[in-house]
Design brief:
The complex is a heterodimer. Chain A is α/β, with parallel strands linked by helices. Chain A has one domain: 3-Layer(aba) Sandwich (Rossmann fold), CATH 3.40.50.300. Chain A has seven helices and ten strands. In chain A, the strands form two sheets. Chain A has a six-stranded mixed sheet. Chain A starts with a strand and ends with a strand. By secondary structure, chain B is of the alpha+beta class. Chain B has two domains: 169 residues, no CATH class; 169 residues, no CATH class. Chain B is built from 14 helices and 13 strands. In chain B, the strands form two sheets. Chain B has an eleven-stranded mixed sheet with strand order 5-4-8-9-7-10-6-3-12-1-13. The chains are: A alpha/beta, B alpha+beta. The interface between A and B is medium-sized, with 26 and 23 residues.
Chain lengths: 230, 385
């Protein structure tokens, strides 16, 4: 059986006027189903770019990117949007919740793209909020929640439609140590107990310790061997 | 409908800005409703007053040039003419100069037989015939001044003094006529015969003749024959259909429609700039949020629709409140001033035109911001670029 994510000779080049910036050089990488992978590296190493490509937010310049058997670099914008809705849950450093909506409504957002009835959407969102320990904060707006709570709402939003893959970009980058530990513990639980495949970009070696394995990027290339968690 | 809460949340994001924009839309559509209500009266004039069986003859040099009453007998002899009456503008005010009765005419005894849509009791007509100083007024006008049959009504003439120099004419109200709309119930009618006898000048001359014709298909031929009677005389005439006359009459004073549309054009142009700016700001501020929606899988088309829906909802909400306020204002004014108010109720046709305008403005002002939202690149927007 193949890997859940198969990356072959993946390159990404940005062109800014006459300048050509090669951010990723011929990356080869596999992520198995149920993996929790931490992507580390210095700023500008291409971590977020790689994560964006895996999440279908951007298109590679060269190479192939197969996720759950789908060559996503071949998809059109519209197909990619639908693919993201079905297969990827996103967690960002700054939570990126919609400030005017309650926690419940924020979590329901991905479900608006499904055929679920309103009652089912509400029920699923409640279950997701319960899973992240925020059932009692469902009616609160993001501004009424702490950073750690907001990130947990964002995780609930990421998992509510039961995606194939969770991609997390510095999910603890804006949190204090305790909140960061809570969020990482939650991701670990989702990985271990619910079998979620997670790819997480982080600067923080302590955060990376929660992952099953760690990959290092430097100047757009994967370097060194993998560090596998004990 | 499942996205409605998203659209609503976006509008509530900046309550003060949305409120002020909404207020400007309300005011614009209030103005639209009031002006359309006035405009409808003039539009109505061309339609309801007109009868295919009536022709109107005026002096070729204009409505205010009188013609000799002797022409009436010649017109009556024109083949195709079944009846004819002459009448002349009188004009005066009641009690004080501000209470002008603009639609006041000295009419021939068969006037009502040429206007069968004006309903008056036969007894009142007989009384009108028998009373030298008799007058019949429209129901809306009578209601406005609380006039009752049998009352004496002193009128200060605007143009014609009585023989002896007094401008005060006293009329005996002998009847009240009813018509299809309050707009047609504004006339004050006195006897032409009395006017000819009592006026210091202007006697035996009329402002216009009304002809009843048997066959509307032959109207142009009859009109030409009537005008031929006075060819090369000092009082050449112009005969046209009743409807054409009504439209000409109004447009010779001012092109009401043009003025209304010019005002509304300016108002809506300003409104579009204002609302367009609000929408552009709203979308610019929410670039990150729109990028998040696209990240979650909302397609470009859905994002476009959400922004368009937001702008349409804003304009429709404000527009409906504005038109509603206009409807209420017209209702209250009519209640206060009476049917003499030259305004039609804000009815279905105005709501339909207003609704179409709301949709159009909503789509137009939302188009550019929606396109911007649709085209934003997720990675750039999330990175704040």
């Amino acid at each position: 059986m193949g890997a859940l994510v198969e990356i072959r000779s993946l390159s990404k080049v940005y062109e800014r006027g006459r300048q050509r910036i090669e951010v990723l050089h011929h990356i080869d990488m596999d992520v198995q189903e149920g993996d929790f992978v931490a992507l580390m590296g210095p700023s500008g190493s291409g971590k977020t770019t790689l994560l964006n490509l895996i999440g279908g937010l951007d298109s590679p310049t060269e190479g192939s990117l197969t996720v759950a058997g789908e060559r996503i670099e071949r998809l059109t914008q519209g197909q990619l949007a639908r693919w993201r809705a079905a297969h990827v849950g996103f967690v960002f450093q700054f939570y990126n919740l919609l400030p005017m909506l309650s926690a419940q409504r924020n979590v329901e957002l991905p479900l608006l793209l499904t055929k679920l009835a309103s009652k089912e959407r509400r029920r699923n969102a409640s279950v997701a909020l319960q899973l992240v320990g925020l059932a009692d904060r469902a009616t609160h707006k993001p501004g009424e929640l702490s950073g750690g709570q907001q990130q947990r709402v964002a995780i609930a939003r990421a998992i509510v439609s039961d995606p194939t893959l969770l991609v997390c970009d510095e999910p603890t980058g804006d949190l204090d140590r305790q909140s960061a530990e809570d969020v990482l513990g939650l991701l670990q639980e989702l990985n271990r107990e619910h079998g979620k495949t997670i790819i997480m970009v982080t600067h923080d070696p302590k955060a990376a310790e929660h992952a099953g394995r760690t990959l290092h990027l430097d100047k757009g290339t994967l370097v060194g061997g993998e560090q596998v968690a004990a | 409908m499942k996205y409605l809460h998203l659209v609503w949340a976006a509008l509530r994001r900046r309550k003060v800005r949305t409120g002020l924009t909404l207020l400007s839309i309300v005011v614009a559509f209030l103005l639209f409703g009031l002006l359309e209500s006035v405009n409808s009266v003039f539009g109505e004039a061309g339609h309801t007053v007109g009868s295919a069986h009536r022709l109107i003859t005026i002096s070729r040099t204009g409505l205010f040039t009188p013609m000799p009453i002797s022409l009436e007998a010649q017109i009556r002899a024109v083949p195709g003419v079944e009846a004819v009456t002459g009448y002349t503008f009188f004009g005066g005010s009641y009690q004080n100069p501000k209470q002008v009765i603009g639609s006041m005419f000295a009419v021939g005894r068969n006037f009502f037989s040429l206007y069968p849509e004006l309903k008056v009791a036969p007894a009142a007509l007989r009384q009108f015939d028998a009373t030298q100083t008799g007058a019949i007024v429209g129901a809306a006008l009578a209601q406005r001044y609380h006039w009752k049959v049998g009352e004496q009504i002193p009128i200060k003439a605007m143009i014609y003094p009585r023989k002896g120099g007094s401008y005060t004419w006293t009329f005996d109200l002998v009847g009240i006529y009813h018509a299809r709309s309050p707009f047609e119930e504004q006339d004050f009618l006195l006897r032409l015969r009395y006017f000819n006898e009592a006026a210091a000048f202007g006697n035996n001359r009329v402002g216009l003749f009304v002809e009843k014709i048997g066959n509307p298909q032959g109207a142009s031929g009859v009109a030409a024959a009537i005008d031929a009677l006075s060819n090369n005389s000092g009082h050449e005439t112009k005969t046209q259909s009743d409807s054409a006359f009504a439209v000409d009459f109004l447009s010779q004073f001012v092109d009401i429609g043009l003025i209304m549309h010019a005002i509304m054009g300016a108002v809506f142009f300003t409104l579009m700039l204002l609302t367009g700016n609000t929408m552009a700001q709203a979308v610019r501020e929410r670039t990150g949020e729109l990028a998040v929606l696209k990240t979650l899988g909302f397609t470009n088309g859905t994002v476009l629709s959400l922004v368009l829906a937001e702008s349409v909802l804003l304009v429709v909400l404000g527009g409906a409140l504005g038109l509603g306020a206009a409807a209420l204002a017209v209702h209250l004014l009519q209640h206060q001033i009476g049917a003499a108010l030259p305004m039609m109720p804000v009815g279905g046709a105005i709501w339909l035109r207003g609704g179409t305008l709301m949709l159009l403005i909503g789509l137009l002002v939302g188009a550019l911001p929606a396109r911007r939202g649709m085209r934003l690149r997720i990675v750039d927007a999330l990175a704040g670029r």
